[in-house]
């Protein structure tokens, strides 16, 4: 979810669901150790529980970044061993690390030794032509020995050469049964399923077999999917989450962000285009909040105008 689940999207998501864990976009160790730490790690207090996802392959560097995550108040630090991007592979991390389980174990141990917050791993079920369930079973078993107790499993292989990241989300077949088997083989480990989930009924079915479900792009493009999560999955039937209430909550947040250097309305607006997805006024909402001429120099009042436009269809 690079360039998607930034702090603006996470604040927006938190206005819809109180309890769902939120994850940052993947941040590389180099970006934290040699770049602008505040730019990558700042977040709004309402985002809790929130996890920092890291990309890297050097145990010492990951440990230093995990300490930063803890110092900044993150609730979890997650190591990405699932991204198939060739750019990421050039940095020797992401899905290619599945071929080096001992290195991943060393990274996890170094991070766990450095912090008191949870250290988790997100990974695929295999890489390239490896189709044997035993591959991912042995990988998870190796990392469990390093002390990791939570795995987020994207139920597809990662094809490291020849497929784009988008194609890697669509072409390799989903094998949910592999994730279910992991939970059976590691009953004391928390197993979360990821990949291709598009409805709350699907989430409920998966939860009969695993401990949790991570939803990425569907929650981004159709964010109102999250409106039922607190009542259905966390036993909290609060009723404040209406679309109008979400718009109202975004107004002071946007004004605060616009007071910061270099932040423009488009930086926030691009993340909320799906709020009225499926409703008659959705097109008007998207059109107004993606119109460069309207966005230029605009303030939070544009959201109210766009909301009014949805009511006219």
UniProtKB/TrEMBL annotation:
Gene3D superfamilies to which the protein is assigned, alphabetical: 1.20.120.1460, Aldolase class I (3.20.20.70)
List the catalytic residues. Answer: 83 (proton donor)
The entry assigns this protein to a family as follows: Belongs to the dus family. Belongs to the Dus family. DusA subfamily.
Q: For binding FMN, which residues are annotated in this chain's numbering?
A: 53, 122, 154, 194-196, 216-217
Instruction: Specify the DUS-like FMN-binding domain's residue ranges.
Output: 1-299
Task: Quote the InterPro entries the UniProt record gives.
Answer: Aldolase_TIM, DUS-like_FMN-bd, DUS_fam, DusA, tRNA_hU_synthase_CS
Give a GO molecular function annotation for the protein. Answer: FMN binding
Question: Could you say which residues form the signal peptide?
Answer: none
How is this protein named in the record? tRNA-dihydrouridine(20/20a) synthase
Q: Where is this site: Interacts with tRNA?
A: 80, 166, 169, 283, 286
* Reactions catalysed, as given in the entry: 5,6-dihydrouridine(20) in tRNA + NAD(+) = uridine(20) in tRNA + NADH + H(+); 5,6-dihydrouridine(20a) in tRNA + NADP(+) = uridine(20a) in tRNA + NADPH + H(+); 5,6-dihydrouridine(20) in tRNA + NADP(+) = uridine(20) in tRNA + NADPH + H(+); 5,6-dihydrouridine(20a) in tRNA + NAD(+) = uridine(20a) in tRNA + NADH + H(+)
Q: Which cofactor does it need?
A: FMN
Q: Which UniProt keywords apply?
A: Flavoprotein, FMN, NADP, Nucleotide-binding, Oxidoreductase, RNA-binding, tRNA processing, tRNA-binding
**Free-text function comment from the UniProt entry:** Catalyzes the synthesis of 5,6-dihydrouridine (D), a modified base found in the D-loop of most tRNAs, via the reduction of the C5-C6 double bond in target uridines. Specifically modifies U20 and U20a in tRNAs.
Q: Which domain of life is it from?
A: Bacteria
The protein's Enzyme Commission number: 1.3.1.91
């Amino acid at each position: 979810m690079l360039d998607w689940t930034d702090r603006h999207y996470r604040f927006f998501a938190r206005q819809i669901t109180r309890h769902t864990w939120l994850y940052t976009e993947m941040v590389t160790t180099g970006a934290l150790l040699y770049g602008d730490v505040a730019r990558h790690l700042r977040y709004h207090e309402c985002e809790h529980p929130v996890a920092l996802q890291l990309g890297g392959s050097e145990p010492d560097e990951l440990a230093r970044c995990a300490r930063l995550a803890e110092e900044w108040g993150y609730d979890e630090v997650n190591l990405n061993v699932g991204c198939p991007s060739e750019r990421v592979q050039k940095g020797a991390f992401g899905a290619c690390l599945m071929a080096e389980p001992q290195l991943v174990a060393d990274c996890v141990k170094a991070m766990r030794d450095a912090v008191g917050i949870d250290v988790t791993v997100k990974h695929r079920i295999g890489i390239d032509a490896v189709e044997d369930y035993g591959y991912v079973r042995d990988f998870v078993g190796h990392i469990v020995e390093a002390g990791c107790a939570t795995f987020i499993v994207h139920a597809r292989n990662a094809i490291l050469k020849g497929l784009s990241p988008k194609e890697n989300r669509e072409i390799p077949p989903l094998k949910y049964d592999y994730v279910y088997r992991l939970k059976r083989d590691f009953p004391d480990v928390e197993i979360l399923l990821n990949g291709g989930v598009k409805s709350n009924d699907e989430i409920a079915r998966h939860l009969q077999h695993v401990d949790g479900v991570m939803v990425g792009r569907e929650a981004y493009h159709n964010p109102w999917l999250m409106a039922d999560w607190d009542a259905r999955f966390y036993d909290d039937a609060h009723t404040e989450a209406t679309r109008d209430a979400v718009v109202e909550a975004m107004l002071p947040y946007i004004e605060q962000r616009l007071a910061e250097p270099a932040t423009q309305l488009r930086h926030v607006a691009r993340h909320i285009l799906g709020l009225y997805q499926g409703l008659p006024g959705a097109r008007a909402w998207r059109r107004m909040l993606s119109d460069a001429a309207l966005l230029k120099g605009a303030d939070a009042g544009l959201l109210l105008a766009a909301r009014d436009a949805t009511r006219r269809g």
